[in-house]
Amino acid sequence: MKITHIAPTESWTGKDGAKQFKMGVVFEDPNVRYPNIIYATIFGSDAIRRFDFAEGDLVDVEFFHQAREYNGRWYNEIRVRDFTPASIAEEKDSARPFGY
Predict the structure, then answer these.
(1) Would residue 99 count as lying in a domain?
(2) Enclosing domain of residue 43
(3) Is beta strand 2-6 parallel, antiparallel or unpaired with respect to 19-28?
(4) Angle in degrees, CA 25, 80, 67, rounded to 5
(5) Residue 100: inside a domain, yes or no?
(6) Contact 6, 27 (CB under 8 A)
(7) Across residues 74-98, what is the average pLDDT?
């Protein structure tokens, strides 16, 4: 996935008094005819600190999604579970048997 935009890091104080952090990132799959664009969030200061990429970089990303209800309405959210530079991801993929 190609990083097309990185939003500024947001912070707030949680209910337990701990400082919380999140950052939004827009990813695009450049290897398809009609590119898929995904906006996902990265949570936690450790994950944000590890996210040492810039717009235009290629990365391998694992997403997960969740839905929640608030005041009778449902909302979806896509979060980043893990990420690695594309060159490392390609090495991992080449080690997999065909079809997996």
Answers:
(1) no
(2) 2-94
(3) antiparallel
(4) 105
(5) no
(6) no
(7) 71
Q: Which pLDDT score is estimated for 88?
A: 57
Domain-located, residue 37: yes
In the DSSP assignment, the letter for residue 3 is E
Q: Which residues pair with 53 in a beta bridge?
A: none
Query: Mind giving me the DSSP string for 58-90?
Result: BEEEEEEEEEEEETTEEEEEEEEEEEEEHHHHH
User: Which helix (H) or strand (E) is 93 found in, with range?
Assistant: helix 86-94
State mean pLDDT over 44-61. 92
Please check whether residue 82 lies inside any domain of the structure: yes
**Strand, coil or helix: 47:** helix
Q: What is the CATH number of the domain that holds 73?
A: 2.40.50.140
Contact 5, 25 (CB under 8 A): yes
